[in-house]
Amino acid sequence: MIEFKILKKSKISRARLGLLKTENGVVETPCFAPVATQAAVKTLTSEEVEQTKTQILIANTFHLHLKPGEKIVESAGGLHKFMNWPKPLMTDSGGFQVFSLGFGRDFGTGKILKTKTDSLIRKGQQPKLIKITGGGVFFTSPLNGQKIFLGPRESIKIQESLGADIIFTFDECTAPLADYEYTKNSLARTHRWAEICLKSKKSGQALFGIVQGGKFKDLRIESAKFIGSLPFDGFGIGGEFGDNKKIMAQMIDWVIKELPEEKPRHLLGIGRLEDIAKIIKAGIDTFDCIAPTRFARHGIAFVSEGELDMSKTKFSEDKNPLDKKCSCFVCRNYRRNYINHLFRAGEITALKLLTFHNLYFFNSEIANIREKIKKGKF
RNA sequence: GCGCAGGUGGCAGAGCGGUCAAAUGCAUCAGACUGUAAAUCUGACGCCCUUGUGGCUACGGGGGUUCGAAUCCCUCCCUGCGCA
Known about the structure:
Blueprint: E1 3-9, E2 16-22, E3 25-29, E4 31-34, H1 46-51, E5 57-60, H2 61-66, H3 70-75, H4 79-82, E6 89-92, H5 95-107, E7 131-132, E8 137-140, E9 147-150, H6 152-162, E10 166-168, H7 180-200, E11 206-211, H8 217-229, E12 234-237, H9 245-256, E13 265-267, H10 276-281, E14 286-289, H11 291-297, E15 300-303, E16 306-309, H12 329-333, H13 336-344, H14 348-374
Helix pairs in contact: 6-7, 7-8, 8-9, 11-14, 13-14
The structure holds one RNA strand of 84 nucleotides.
């Protein structure tokens, strides 16, 4: 079980300062959760992740079900022991894979639409490789074509075996191309699944219900009201976030107003550097995103100036640390020219150094924000 | 000196008479990435412009055969290997 305590509410925004207590430790919120899909933050050991001041991780039900299978994790004593991460853990339900391996893959789109397209996903339409039904989703593993069925009961059962502190309801993350009717229909299904998840859970893990509804205000509000009315331990806000960033904050706003105040809210899959302040001000307590880790592997350092592509030649003679104000071991000990060299030389150390820095930098930025909230300045 | 094999875009390396401004890989440059199929993906990559079934210059140098040559012939230069 978890306990959520709100220490302070901002008077100038919806931001709040809180403590999320779990059996494996306390999370100071607002807080970022790095993504450890396959029970690992890519390039880092769990010990290294701890050194980035990370408080909580999120792993993935779908991927761990495929490999190595929840039985193996369970027999290892659960995810915490399996990956030697003694701190709080979340598992995503597999609902994101309904999108990422479905329409996301078919249309080559992410959760936020970049370019306007005429193609819309209409009610009744199915992705090429997966089949979404009322009872759950038939996946085709992209790895080997294996067929996997995941519904609310299956997802909860797997998540119980994995043993994270916080688990999520099985939902359908809808695509930004989904039209109103598709989204409405999908939402009804996601709501039904949420109730089933709630009923089928036997463990003492905290269960977060996920709000969907796409870009449609009435659906978002309807979803927040419905999910918010159920006895979840907290709430996830998922799905697409519109055609541009301006809409995103507004969409969070629609939802947050409808959710019970005393419970934690997790924003699923959002967290580029530029988003942090906005989403915390919108009232988000925790959020996860692959950006700091994946971008690191693609050469991007998150620093005070913004996102720097450390693989560019312009850094080949730059003797500065990644960020002058950052106190992580990478910034204390290494210079940009070295990291640039590592990238150009294809050395995997480059990926590790940037991953470490990005996480540390993210966590520091958010720690600063917590301080500001405490002082009433955020 | 003789014999053999070669000289192709930044590099490696295909092509061996037209569909070749020239495969592919690497390198380079630019862009993307938001609950991770991602140490990934996309695009550009001879020069010029009015950006096009456009123009120009190109496959070691020079000459030739041919309607047409990176591709065939002659010659020169260079490289590698072998033999003196």
